[in-house]
Task: inverse folding
């Protein structure tokens, strides 16, 4: 095959990933941000529950008394998924359909394109920030919860001490959703030509 045959020469050909990403609609970026924020938060929660749950069940064989009070670790892990749901609701309420342009497929030249792209990329980054923070939070809560269950099975006085560490690990998810809310505050999709927001 000649080298000229492998190069796409039509107007629908993308030169690379940078052109694909630059050609993507702000609605696509906003919805990807919602999906990543929610999806990664659920992955973080599931990973944390897997880590803490397996240790909890294993340690409960030696000390059945730890089963009920160590469920707090599973609740902390589940909170990371709830943070993702909250952020997804906030971001989904910011995605608006243009009202003046219902019967056409292309936006006019006097449309606020910089604001449109700023909002889409801002929502993408807010969702990604929350999702990745909640993955880290879920894993750290899971590891701390696993240690809490094993330590509690050995010595009941260690439960409260390790629970403090677990609370701080769970705070990472709260920090993530605060950062996501701050990032998304300035993201208001323009809905009409004359609109400033």
Result:
């Amino acid at each position: 095959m000649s080298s000229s045959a492998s190069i796409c020469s039509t107007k629908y050909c993308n030169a690379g990933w940078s052109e694909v990403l630059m050609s993507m609609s702000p609605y696509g970026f906003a919805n990807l941000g919602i999906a990543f924020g929610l999806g990664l938060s659920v992955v973080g929660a599931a990973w944390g529950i897997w880590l803490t749950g397996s240790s909890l069940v294993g340690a409960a064989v030696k000390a059945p008394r730890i089963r009920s009070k160590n469920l707090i670790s599973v609740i902390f892990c589940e909170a990371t998924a709830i943070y993702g749901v909250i952020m997804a609701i906030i971001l989904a309420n910011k995605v608006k359909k243009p009202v003046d342009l219902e019967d056409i497929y292309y936006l006019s030249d006097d449309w606020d394109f910089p604001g449109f792209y700023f909002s889409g990329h801002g929502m993408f980054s807010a969702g990604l920030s929350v999702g990745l923070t909640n993955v880290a939070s879920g894993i750290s809560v899971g590891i701390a919860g696993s240690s809490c269950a094993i330590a509690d099975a050995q010595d009941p006085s260690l439960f409260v001490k390790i629970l403090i560490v677990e609370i701080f690990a769970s705070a990472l998810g709260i920090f993530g959703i605060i950062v996501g809310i701050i990032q998304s505050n300035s993201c208001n999709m323009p809905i009409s030509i004359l609109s400033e927001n």
Summary: The chain has seven helices and no strands.
